[in-house]
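4.2 Preliminary Data

To establish feasibility before requesting continued support, the project team ran the inverse folding procedure on a target of 670 residues. The structure was first converted into the token representation described in Section 3, and no sequence information of any kind was made available to the design step. The complete token record follows.
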């Protein structure tokens, strides 16, 4: 096929948007939509190649896949191997195991399925700190390459006059599924092929419109005048750039809003494919072409290096942006080296192709072997047995989708934590009052609201209520389900409507029960935006709840250890202790001023809400020098950087007993 330089320019625009977004999401909030640009472009190019070969009578599925193997696999093999090596050498063993597991899914073209099943939402914490998260889009494209060529070949052979019609039907079905799934199953819709297929088919339909299926008897290409070409191209370019600037993670994506980058890209392709325009000349600038040619390698390498940069910055108390920028610079250098040394030499055809394919096969075997070995290793977190085995019983009190011990222990943070076997319980027990323990009969006198931080104290609250014969209801949930009535979509809810129903149901129970005490527990520093937002949300919540309960008990958040979100804390500590020293000093993270502000805000709110109590559960976990008291003797108080173990919650038992002591015991209810 004839080389079209502006197509590399489109690649350059897409990779630059993704690159900037990954370095600093606030700098270009919709930069992730560059992936959607790649999807449309990939559908256009692959279909154009297939149609060209069909017209020439030279199309072969075997040859098509050999080209894809040579084009895509060598660099991704090297990337995965390097990432697993870096994580093995620089980070605790459990993180390396997780990365190696993801690496295996990646090289088998299923990274998007792994992300859906293990990382959660694209904007979530797990996805942010996983070095191979970005390969989800490559897995999706490679699945498209496995399915689409055969599908198109069958259509061309048996339904040549209806190829466009069938593709339009497939696009409409996929888009409809995408629209439905964005509201009902947002995570699966974001990652999986059936709900993103339409974006690639967008490009495929455009290619069929521009490239006749047969040399003779086909309809002529539609031509546009110069002004029309310019207008169409710049309109599409404007839509693409606007999507980078104005879309953000708060939109329901992909959904309807994803039409902006996809339709915009299609218009740009339509414009540059019918003749020269000022836009095509801009996209054909030498720097744009060089960046476009490097785009695949740059996409592979930039995110893992940004991730390791952020982890190192976090561990050394530096701003995450410093680590992102440093990692991005190294990523650019490594992507260029991989492009020159690996990608370009191994994608050649002609003489020596058999040896090149043999090298790729050998690379595949090496990566599978290395990932499997690292994945199979089960390094001891506390080889010297310095600490008792930490336990966490919080999931027993989950009113939503509780995580089982197998699922939790797969996370590197919790590999050494003992989790309980869960009883059979509906994943929506909040509809029937949550986890109810009616020790005193009647309606619950104590109600616990909040996120996983509420779960971590729930065993302690349950013990106290049982001792005092108080009926108690647990309406806390994992997966960042907030204590406030924020109606947040997360894995507990299939849609925003269900999240709203959850909040309204909690309100209903409080109105019906009129409890003596409502404990409100959350990771307060996770509330986004300015600190003043916490004041507004707290007062709004108290305005609703304080009239419904005799007392509202606000539990202050414990300090967060500055070791990064995905570090296994005991592994980190025992590594530091291996030099013969005692417990290493661990300091609070950069959100410490925000937590102190939130404590002061809660204390100040008592003036307007006299039945508000503030429990300073944070104070026992500070040393005199301001560092964190995370262990004592054989007792380890922290399960990860921001959750307490069961032993850790015992440190504040007296505070909770005093807070709950005002609740009268017995079975009487109001």
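Position-by-position output of the design step:
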């Amino acid at each position: 096929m004839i080389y079209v330089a502006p197509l590399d320019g489109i690649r350059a625009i897409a990779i630059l948007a993704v690159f900037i977004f990954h370095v600093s999401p606030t700098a270009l909030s919709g930069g992730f939509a560059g992936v959607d640009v790649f999807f449309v472009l990939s559908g256009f190019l692959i279909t154009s190649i297939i149609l060209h070969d069909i017209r020439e009578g030279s199309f072969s599925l075997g040859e098509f896949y050999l080209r894809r193997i040579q084009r895509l696999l060598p660099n991704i093999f090297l990337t995965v191997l390097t990432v697993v090596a870096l994580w093995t050498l620089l980070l605790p063993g459990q993180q390396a195991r997780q990365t190696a597991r993801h690496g295996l899914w990646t090289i088998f073209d299923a990274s998007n399925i792994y992300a859906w099943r293990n990382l959660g939402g694209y904007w979530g914490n797990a996805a942010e700190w996983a070095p191979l998260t970005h390969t989800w889009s490559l897995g999706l494209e490679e699945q498209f390459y496995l399915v689409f060529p055969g599908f198109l070949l069958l259509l061309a052979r048996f339904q040549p006059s209806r190829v466009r019609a069938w593709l339009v039907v497939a696009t409409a079905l996929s888009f409809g599924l995408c629209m439905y799934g964005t509201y009902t199953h947002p995570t699966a819709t974001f990652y999986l092929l059936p709900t993103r297929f339409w974006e690639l088919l967008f490009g495929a339909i455009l290619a069929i419109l521009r490239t006749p299926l047969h040399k003779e008897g086909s309809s002529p290409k539609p031509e546009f005048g110069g002004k029309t070409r310019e207008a169409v191209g710049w309109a599409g370019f404007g839509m693409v750039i606007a999507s980078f600037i104005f879309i953000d993670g708060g939109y329901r994506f992909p959904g309807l809003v994803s039409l902006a980058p996809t339709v915009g890209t299609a218009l740009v392709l339509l414009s540059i494919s019918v003749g020269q325009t000022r836009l095509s000349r801009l996209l054909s600038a030498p720097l744009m072409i060089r960046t476009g040619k490097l785009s695949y390698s740059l996409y592979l390498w930039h995110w893992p290096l940004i991730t390791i940069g952020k982890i190192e910055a976090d561990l050394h108390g530096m701003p995450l942006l410093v680590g992102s920028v440093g990692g991005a610079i190294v990523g650019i250098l490594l992507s260029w080296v991989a492009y020159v040394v690996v990608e370009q030499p191994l994608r050649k055809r002609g003489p020596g192709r058999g040896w090149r394919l043999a090298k790729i096969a050998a690379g595949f075997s090496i990566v599978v072997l290395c990932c499997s070995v690292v994945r199979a290793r089960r390094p001891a977190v506390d080889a010297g047995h310095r600490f008792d085995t930490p336990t966490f019983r919080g999931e027993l009190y989950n009113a939503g989708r509780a995580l089982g011990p197998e699922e939790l222990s797969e996370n590197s943070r919790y590999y050494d934590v003992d989790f309980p076997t869960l009883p059979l319980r509906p994943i929506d027990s909040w509809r029937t009052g949550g986890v109810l323990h009616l020790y005193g009969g009647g309606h619950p006198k104590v109600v616990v609201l909040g996120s996983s931080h509420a779960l971590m104290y729930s065993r302690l609250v349950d013990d106290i209520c049982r001792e005092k014969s108080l009926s108690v209801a647990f309406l806390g949930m994992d997966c960042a389900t907030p204590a406030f009535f924020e109606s947040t979509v997360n894995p507990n809810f299939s849609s925003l409507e269900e999240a709203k129903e959850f909040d309204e149901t909690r309100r209903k129970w409080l109105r019906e029960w009129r409890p003596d005490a409502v404990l409100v527990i959350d990771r307060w520093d996770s509330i986004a935006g300015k600190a003043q937002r916490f004041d507004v949300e707290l007062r709004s919540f108290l305005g609703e709840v304080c009239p419904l309960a005799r007392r509202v008990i606000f539990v202050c958040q414990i300090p967060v250890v500055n070791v990064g979100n995905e570090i296994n804390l005991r592994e980190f500590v025992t590594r530091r202790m291996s030099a013969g020293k005692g417990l290493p000093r661990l300091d609070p993270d950069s959100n410490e001023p925000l937590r102190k502000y939130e404590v002061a805000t809660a204390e100040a709110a008592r003036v307007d809400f006299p039945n508000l109590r503030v429990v300073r559960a944070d104070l026992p976990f500070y040393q005199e020098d301001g560092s964190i008291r995370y262990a004592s003797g054989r007792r380890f108080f922290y399960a990860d950087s921001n959750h307490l173990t069961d032993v850790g919650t015992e440190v504040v038992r007296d505070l909770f007993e005093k807070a709950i002591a005002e609740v009268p015991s017995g079975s009487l209810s109001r």
